[in-house]
Amino acid sequence: MISVIICSINKTFAGQVQKNIAETIGVVWEAVVIENTVTPQSLTSVYNLGAAKATYDFLCFVHEDVIFKTQNWGLKLIDYFQNDQQLGLVGIAGSKYKSRVPSGWATGIAKIDCCNITHLDSKGNQQQMYFNPVSGSLTQEVVVLDGVLLCCPKKVWEVVRFDDILLKDFHLYDLDFSFRVAEKYKVLVSFEIDMIHLTEGGNFSDKWLEATLAWHKKMSAKLPAYVQGFQVNKKEWEDKIVRTWLIRLKHENIGFYNQLQWLTNVKIWAHLSAWPNVLLFMVKKYFKKRS
Length: 291
Prior knowledge:
Layout: E1 2-8, H1 11-24, E2 29-35, H2 43-53, E3 58-62, E4 66-68, H3 73-83, E5 87-91, E6 93-95, E7 97-98, E8 113-120, E9 126-131, E10 139-142, E11 144-145, E12 149-153, H4 154-160, H5 173-182, E13 186-190, E14 195-197, H6 206-218, E15 225-226, H7 234-249, H8 256-265, H9 275-290
Parallel strand pairs: 1-2, 1-3, 5-13, 8-14
Antiparallel strand pairs: 3-12, 4-14, 6-8, 6-11, 7-15, 8-9, 10-13
Helix pairs in contact: 6-8
């Protein structure tokens, strides 16, 4: 039995995904849809509200702009939890390593990132994001997840809950929740559940960066974090993650001040291999600011 919790800002998407879930989930389920347009609340608040209203033992927090392609995906999720009492959370994208570098879940490192999502771009073309560090594996253990799909027993949410005090917007809810669940339970990415995300996602705005810097500051004593027993190369990986996110953020709509805050926070002077991109970034942002 699964309670599917949806924060809705689009009635068309909300209706479409509920119909799709009814046709594919394969188990008894209920929709807990929180309409969030009239007096918008943070996603953390909405998800806590929805989870409190849920009547079933398993919770799935799902974006409304998705289509499930796998039949009986609900049965698969319940089987995961019933077969592993240490399992606390399942998603379809995440990473085995969470860096000190302020960033999202993705690292850009093949042996760390795990993902099985198909996105539709602005022209309607499908772009499959599939990263599996162990070819052919059905699941991989991770320490952080993307929020397009987050599934857990209700008793896990009752212990961890979403942080609606620090995170008062629509960012970092997934990173924070999965990270704190991973401190107490096992967290998995499943490669058995296929989903189309009807938007490209990835809104890395000033608000995202501000929330990211605040969260990393709060969790600094616990970072980096990684799957227990996983062999890591912290210096090499932190350098790579700096370069990955520097390239990504310089193309985002982030103010010059916040960009400098990020560069200072990551101690960019310690990452020599990133400096060519740093210089390009600073020149681009400077002239954009002046124009």
